[in-house]
Write a structure and sequence with these properties.
Elements (H helix, E strand, L loop, with lengths): L4 H7 L9 H8 L3 H5 L7 H15 L14 H13 L7 H5 L3 H6 L13 H10 L2 H16 L11 E5 L2 E2 L8 E3 L4 E4 L2 E5 L5 E5 L8 H17 L5
Antiparallel strand pairs: 1-5, 2-4, 3-4, 5-6
Helix pairs in contact: 4-5
Length: about 230
């Protein structure tokens, strides 16, 4: 019966009186370095990122015909996230990077033998398929993740609201000309915990600054949610 490398590694006896570890490894047909190899566990940060990608993916309604699906929502989100993190924000970059072995690994595909990732048309269809309900679920998930990241209520929470321009091109919906930035853009609203910089939630907005009364209404809802859920009071 054929045994695995891990099973043969377990047979090696460090306290053997006649055979050294090197000699035992040779008999077991395993490399000596393989005997000392210890698999590296994922860091807590990596696990949090993978959980975030999985959760955000679950917020998106999948209306595709599953008989013809080659890329899951989770794979598409992972591909998009890691491309942006690497500095490739444009969907057109998907065409050149869909065979990149590092990105394929990040999307849980085998780097050499795994099929290629999504192309630009597939990624664009994903982005256009995300509706208002999906965005609301994403925002609520981020808020819930913030609330339940505390095991006990903090003494004070300083909320920092930051409008950030995201310049656009083409005829994208709700991209407006912003006189301050002198360009067409979206103006997503990022809400942070001011003292630590921890993200509370983020909201996609048209390319104009938020009016103060709209922001006050949003903060009222936000504070109410934080006060009624989890350890944050």
């Amino acid at each position: 019966m054929k045994t695995s490398i891990s099973q043969r590694r377990d047979i090696v006896d460090k306290a053997h009186q006649k055979l050294s570890i090197k000699e035992q490894c040779q008999l077991m047909s395993i490399h000596r370095a393989g005997y000392y190899y210890q698999p590296k566990t994922e860091s807590e940060l990596n696990l949090e990122l993978m959980a975030l990608i999985d959760s955000i993916s679950s917020c998106i309604t999948n209306t595709r015909d599953l008989r013809y699906v080659e890329h899951t929502i989770t794979e598409l989100i992972a591909q998009r996230v890691f491309q942006i993190a690497a500095g490739y924000e444009d969907c057109n970059d998907c065409n050149d990077l869909r065979g990149d072995m590092i990105l394929k690994t990040c999307a849980a595909r085998l780097p050499q033998t795994g099929s290629d990732l999504a192309s630009q048309p597939t990624m664009s269809r994903l982005e256009n398929a995300v509706g208002p309900g999906d965005l609301i679920r994403m925002g609520r998930y981020l808020l819930d993740a913030f609330v339940f990241s505390y095991t006990s209520a903090p003494g004070v929470i300083v909320i920092d609201c930051d409008d950030t321009n995201n310049n656009t091109y083409g005829q994208q919906e709700l991209t407006l000309f912003n006189n301050y930035y002198h360009d067409h853009c979206f103006m997503p609203l990022h809400i942070y915990k001011g003292l630590s910089g921890k993200l509370i939630t983020t909201i996609l907005k048209p390319g104009r600054r938020n009016k103060q009364n709209n922001l006050a209404s949003l903060l009222k809802k936000l504070s109410g949610t934080c006060a009624n859920n989890g350890p944050v009071r």
